[in-house]
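Input set for joint prediction.
Command: fold jointly, output C-alpha cells.
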Amino acid sequence: MNGNLNYIIRRLIYLIPVLLGVCFLIFILFNVVAPDPVNMMLGKHPTADQIIEVREQLGLNKSLPAQYLDIVKSAFTFDFGRSWATKQQISTMFMNGAIPSLTLTIPAFFIATFSSIIFAVIVAYFRGKGVDLFIRVTCIAMMSISSLVYILVFQYFLAYKWGLFEISGYEYGFPNFLYYVSLPILIWVVLSLGPDIRFYRTLILDEIYQDYVRTAKAKGLSERTIMFKHVLRNAMIPIVTYTVVQLPFLLLGSLLLESFFSIPGLGDMTISALNASDFPVLKAMSIVSAVAYIIFTLIQDIVYTVVDPRIKLQ
Amino acid sequence: MLKQNTINDVRGAMSPSKKADKINTVLKDRSLWLDAWHRLKQDKIAVVSLAIVLFYAVVGLLSAMGLLAANWNEVVGPSYAPPSADYWFGTDFLGRSVSRKIISGTQVAMSVGLISSLIAIPIGVGLGACAGYFGKWVDEAIVWFYTTFSSIPSIMLLMSIAFIIQKFQVEISEVFGANFDIGLFAVFIALGLTSWVGLCRLIRGEVMKHKNREYVQAADALGAGHTRKLFKHILPNVTHIIIINTSLQFQIAIKSEVILSYLGLGVSGQPSWGTMINDAKEELARGVYWQLLGATIAMFVVVLAFNILGDALRDALDPKLKGKS
Amino acid sequence: MSDLLEVKNLCVDFNTPEGVVRAVNDISFTVPQGKTIGLVGESGSGKSVTALAVMGLIPNPPGFISGGEILFEGTDLVKSQEDYMRKVRGNDIAMIFQEPMTSLNPVFRVGDQIAEVLILHMGMTKKQAWDRAVDLINQVGIPDPSRSALKYPHEMSGGQKQRIMIAMAIACEPKLLICDEPTTALDVTIQQQVLELMFDLQDKYKMGMLFITHDLGVIADIADDVVVMYRSNLVEQNTCENIFTGAKHPYTKGLLSCRPALDRNPERLLTVSDFMEEDGSEIVVDDEKTIKVDKVYNVDEEKNPYLLEVNNLSVHFPIKGGIFGRTVDHFKAVDDVSFKLRKGMTLGLVGESGCGKTTLGRALLRLLEPTSGQVIYDGIDITALDKKELKGMRSRVQIIFQDPYSSLNPRMTVGEILLEPMKLHSIGKDKIERIEKAKWLMEKVGLKADQLARYPHEFSGGQRQRICIARALAVNPEFIVCDESVSALDVSVQAQVLNLLLDLQEEFGLTYIFISHDLSVVNFISDEVAVMNAGQFVELDQANNIYLKPKEDYTKRLLAAIPKGIPKSLIEGQA
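C-alpha cells >
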C-alpha cells in the first residue's frame, strides 16, 4: 500500500514537467510562432498609440520568458484572464459552457460505450460466423464515411425533413435540453460504434486464445460461462482503462457537433474563438484539456490496480 | 533458383556487375517482402483494395500533372444542374462540373495522405527508435516530449497549427509565389505534426522488445556497434509497422481534411472533397445533394480500400497475429 | 481389471493452407482403472493432440477427429454431444496442462477457481464448495490452506500453481486424469515433489492416469505401461519394464540411449539416427559402434594452461523504491564468484531457475556490465577493456543462446547471418572468400552448404541451433559460453547438438562454459561442474566427484531429485 502511495506521489510530481511542456508548446505556438495579434485586432491601419495601448493590455510588451511564465501561472491558477472577443472572464465562460457540453457528451459516451461492448461480445462469441462478418464489414464501412456527412445527412433527414428532432439550438434545464441534444447524441453513438466495436472485439479475442480458457473448458464449463465470466472479466481490464482516459475529453464537448447544432458548449466556444482569433480562449482550452488528460492518465493507472489484481504500482 | 552455384563459376570470366549479382544470389535469392506479397495476393479483397488505392493514386497524379480534369474551373452548364446524362454528378453553384471537381479533389486527398506521412514517419520512427533503443534518459526525454504532444487533444493541436500557418499567408506567398495554396500547405504541416505520436509509441515499444531478443544480443556478442544493431537488425524487423501505419495515416488524413474544411482551415485554391462536403451545409436545404453524394462516394471507396488494406497488411506482414482477426 | 479408457484407431486431422495434415494416425491403446499409462514422444509427435481428443477439446476449426473411437467406460466420446462432454470434462475426466503460469485465470482467487468445478459438477453451495476447496488445497500440500485459497495465481510460485491445477483436477474425484507435461516447466526439485504428490493422489482416489511427457526419466518413475509415439504414429507399446530393458522399435532404442544419464559417462551419445534411417528402417547397431568408454578427467599442464580466471565477480541489480525511485537495495544476481578454467576444458554451470547462472555467463562477455570483480582472459582483464578493445575480444570469446527461435534475425538469410561476423572482424579478404567459409561452416555443423539463401524460419529448432553454433564459429573463437543451448530442443536433437559441440571442441580445441538447469546434460558434457545457488557457487569440482561424491547438502538434494530413468520395479527387483 505504501508503494502505491509513493507511486501516486511520484506521478503527481511527474505532472509538473509534462505541464511545463504543454505550456511551452502553447507558448511556442501562440506567443512565438503566431503573428502579432495586435494587427488582427486593430485592423489594417492602427495608430502607434493604439498599438502600444493594446500591447500593454494583452501583456505582450513583456519579455518572452515573462510571457511563458504567465502561461505557466495560468495553468496552475486556472486564471486565464479575459477573452479578446467577448471581454468576459474566461473562467466564467468555461463554467457556462461546461453544462451544455456535459449534457451532450456524458449520455452519448455511455450509450456508445455500452452498446459497443455488447456488440463486441456478440461478435466475439460468434467469431468466424456470419454475424461476426456482417458486423465487422458494417463497422469498416461506417468508419469510411466522413463524420461531417453523418451530421449533414442525419440533420437533413431526421430533423429537417421528418421533424423527429430539433434542427439546432439549446435550452437549459431538464428535460428541455433533451430535445436538442438527442440528435447529436445519436450521431455521436453512430460515429463511435465502428471503431469501438472493432477495438473491443480485438481485446476480447486476445483473451480467447489464452491458456486459462482451455483450462476452463477442461473443467466442463459452458461456452457461455467461459465467455461472460472468464474471458469478459479479463477483457474488461483494458476496456475499463481505455474508457477512463477518454473521460476528460467529454468535458471539452464535441467541436463539430456543438458548433453545427449551435449548442453553446465548450466545443462551440472553441470554434468561435478560432474564428475570432481569440488567442486566450484557445490557449485556455488547450491547457485545461491537457491538465484534464494528465490527471486522468493518473486515474487510469489507479483504476488498473483496482480491476487487475496482478498490477502493483511501482 | 540457383542451387550449388559454385563460386568457381563466379570467379571465371564474367562482368563485375554480373559477378556481384551471382554472389548475392548465393546469399539471398528472394526477399521476405516478396513472401508477404504472395500471402497478400491470396486475399482477393485485399488485392482489389490495393488496385483501388493505386487507381486513386494514378488519378491524383494525372490531375496534379494537369492531364486530368485540369479544366475543372470551366463553367459547363447552369448553376446547380442536377445529375443527368450530360453532367453525371450535376454542377455546382457556379455551373462547374462536379465530376471534374471530384477527380481534381483526388489530388488533394492523396497528397495530404502522402505528405503528412512523409512528415510523420521520420519523426515518429526516429524518436521512437532512439527512445526504445537507447533507453535511460534518452527514453525519458522522448517520452516526455510525446506525452506533452499527446496531452493536448489532437483536434485542438491540429486546429491551432493549421490556424497559425494560415495567418502567415502574406509571408508564405512571398516565398512560394501568389498561386501557392496556403490552405493545403497548412493541412499538410498540421496533419504531419500531429500524427507522429502514435507511430512513435508503437515503434518505441517494438524496438524495446526486439532489443532484448537474443539475436540482437548475439550481434552484440559478435562486436556489432549501435548503428549496426539498430539499422541492420532491429529496424528491418519493425518496418511492417510503418507500412501498416501509413495505410492508416492516409485514411485519417483524408477524413481530417474534411473537418479542417468545415472549420474554414482547409484548401482554398482548388477543389477538395472536404470543401465539397462542406458546401453541402447550404446546399442540402435546397435539395442539392449531388456534391455531397459525389464527394462522399469518392471518399468512401478509397477510405474503405485503405481500411481493408490495413487489415490485410497486418495479416500478411505480422504473421503472429494471424488467425486472430 | 476393466479398461477405463479405450482408444481405438484414433485419427486426427488438421486443415492447413497446405492441405490436410494428419496429426494422429490410427493409434489404439487402453488405460485400465488405477493404472498409469505413459505417452512418450517428441514435440509434434501428436501426443498432446491425442490427449485433447480424449477431452473433446481439439480446436475446431482447424482440427477434427477423422476416424476411430474413444470409449470411456463403454461410451464413445467421439460421437457424444457437447452437452454430454461438458458433464464428463472436469467431472469424470480431468486434465492438467504444462504451463502453470498461464493456465490459471489471473483475475480470480485460486479458491474460487477450484470451487467453480465443485459448484458445477457436484451441485455444492458456494460455502460448501469453498470449504472443500480449502480442504483440497491442504491435500495438495500448500501451507496455510485457508489463507492460500484467497490468493491470486500471480501470488504463488510455479510449483504451487501446478498444485492448484492438480487440486482443481482431482476436485470431483475423476476416474481418469490426463497430465500433459505437468512438470516440464518446473525446476527439478519441485518436479520431484509434484510427481510424488500425483502418485499419492492416484493411489488414494484410484484414478486411471494418462501421463504425457517427452522425458523418459519421468516415465520410468511413474508409468505402468508406456506408449511411444513418433511422427503421428504409435511405434511401440509395452510395459514400462519391458520398454526399458528390451525396447524393440529402433526409435525407442534411440530415445533411450540419447538421454545422458548420471551413472554412465560415455564420450558420445548414441542418437535416434544411429538406430534408424530417415525412412524409418532399422540400422543394426553392432556393439563395436556402441561407445561404452568412459571419459577420463585428465589435465595436461602443457596442453591445458589456465585460460580464464574470474576473481570476485559480482553483478547486482538495483531495486528502486521510494518517491523518487531511488535505489533502496540490490538484488545480488551474481555474488562474489571466483573460479579458473583451463584451455580445452568444459566447465558446467548448473542450478535452478533464478540462481544467477545466465547473468554470470553474460557478465563474462560483458553483455552485462559486472558490478565488481575481474574477468581475466588469457592475461587480459575483460572488465577493463574500452569499446574498441572489447570489439577485438569479441572474435575470441563467443556465446550461444537458449532459444533457437529468437536468436536468429528473422529478416536475414543464413548466409547474411554467417557473413556479418566475418565482415565485422575482417575475416576473409572478400565476399567470395567469406561465402566459401560460410559454406564450410555449414558443413561443419551438419547442414548443407547450398542452404545459405534460406531464412531461419525454414529450419527446425535443432537446425537453427546449429546455425547459431556456425555463427559463433565464424569469428574463429577460442572460448564459447553455451547458455542453456540445448534446453529448448527435443532429447534426440539435444543429443545430436551435444555430440556436435564435443566434436567441435576436439577439432578446434575450444573451451566451453556450459550453462544448464539439466544436471544429466551438464554431467555428460563437462569436465568440471559448478553448482550455483542464489548467485554463489555452492560447489565446484570435477564432474565425477560432484555426481558421485557430492559434499554440499544443496548438491545432494538436487541430485536426489533427478528422475533415475529406471523403472521402480527394476530397482526393487535389484534390491
